[in-house]
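Exercise 7.
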Amino acid sequence: MRTASLRVRVTLTAIAVLLVVLPVTGLVVKAVFDAQAERSLDSLLTGRAQLAQQLARQNVAPSNLVRRIDADGVRVTLILRSGQQLGAPPVDPGGTVRQVRATLQTGQRTRGATLLLSADTALLSDASARLRTVLLVSGAAAILITALALIIGMRFALAPLDAMTGLARSIVAGRRGERLQPERADTELGRTAAAFDEMLDALEGAEGSAHRSEDRMREFVADAAHELRTPVAGLQTAAETLIQLGPQAPAERREELELLLVRESRRAGTLVADLLELSRIDAGLQLNLSQVDLRHLAEAQAARVRLVAPEMTVEVIGTGTVAGDPERLAQILASLLDNARQVGARALRILVGPTGLLVEDDGPGVPVEVRERIFQRLVHGPQSKGAGLGLAIARGVARAHGGDLTVGDRADGRRGASFKLWLSNPQ
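Solution. The predicted structure, written as tokens, is:
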């Protein structure tokens, strides 16, 4: 991009235009002046000749006739039939002399007389030369005055651009919130200033979003590190104790420490797997779509819950078929059922519909003020035994299907929570 001074470019362009326009205009003006002067001179001579014919018809004396048709710049010569010459001596036409010859047709003394009207065109040449000089001087003065006016005027004309430059530099220096705020947005500079303000709004919004994302990421990493610290500390303690006890350790103590190692390693592995799952959701989850029988999927998960928690009752109502990833939808339903079991629910009801399903439990319910917060990462209640990632993953999978996962009160007004999963075919 060429970055020559805009003031210099505009000034030179205007002067270049004047250098072309003024000479052309001067030539046109001079040509029109010369042509008009020629026509005026011809009209003057012709008019004087016509006046002489009229005076001859009125039988005006030859001397009076010469006197009356005399005019500035016109040389009058009247030659009577007798050879007598009145007026100025005749001159030969040609060179700088323009001459009109006429024969008078009437009059007692002027019939047959020859009238010579002569004019010196040198006067026209002098006037044309003076006009050319005036045009050259005025053109040069116009160019000089225009150049000076542009140099001064451009400072005011480009003031909005200087304001934009100053604002951009202030943004680079770290100052935020300033705007150009154009008075009119329907002009070229107004539209540019409005677009500049919109760009700053977008940049500052993106910057704020990036800062918020960075803060959330730092908080997430800190929380993940905190969650991993407990199983890792358990693993380290159990391993160090096993080493200290040595081969002579009691079998019961050794078995207890080995179980602790297995339990804490599984806990750490589950947390890492959930974190990886969230990263895949953030990057764009790949779904293996097919027609999913939600009734069959709900029955399978209900059977699993009855197996791991025989004291719980699970009821499945309704039917529905949707397009989705069966494994991912089973993951969502399993997370909802496990979450209800962990908070102390004893009765579950799964309502299946054509666009999703509803999971109702008789647990403590979810207060209104925390219903969105429970879907955030690493957020869990006091009764939860997990790391607080299950509901975040479930909502991420639901949204990857083009739907969502929400929580509310039970429709029948009873105590407990109601998780609604609705689906829409992803594009």
